[in-house]
UniProtKB/TrEMBL annotation:
Localization annotation: Nucleus
SUPFAM superfamilies: Homeodomain-like
Transmembrane segments: none
Protein name: HTH CENPB-type domain-containing protein
């Protein structure tokens, strides 16, 4: 797997990327490309440095970055409240003797 030509720049961008992801920030390819230009300038890198789509693919492939954006709902979810809901739902299913056919997930559908 071939990385980009500047290992120092790659490491700085990757560390920045990991930090932002841990903060729950959604990072797009365009944001990475813009940040790479900024870091390249700070490091005194090549004035002809460009962040093409080929550069971005090489950057993503080297450390194995698969998905740049983070789903907002996933990052904002309350795990503890979700666990409480699961327990309460299980109690309700037993109490009302519901079957699997009577239980629906309406998260991604609309009712008409």
């Amino acid at each position: 797997m071939k990385c980009t030509n500047d290992e120092e720049l790659d490491n700085i961008i990757y560390n920045w990327f990991i930090q932002k992801r841990s903060e729950g920030v959604s990072i797009s390819g365009i944001i990475i490309q813009q940040k790479a230009l900024v870091f390249n300038s700070i490091l005194g890198g090549s004035k002809g440095f460009q962040t093409s789509s080929t550069w971005l693919e090489k950057f993503k492939n080297c450390p194995g970055i698969r998905q740049l954006s983070i789903e907002g709902e996933k990052m904002s979810s309350d795990i503890e409240a979700g666990n409480i809901l699961i327990v309460e739902l299980q109690k309700l299913i037993v109490k009302e003797k519901l079957t699997a056919d009577q239980i629906n997930n309406c998260d991604e559908i609309g009712l008409y």
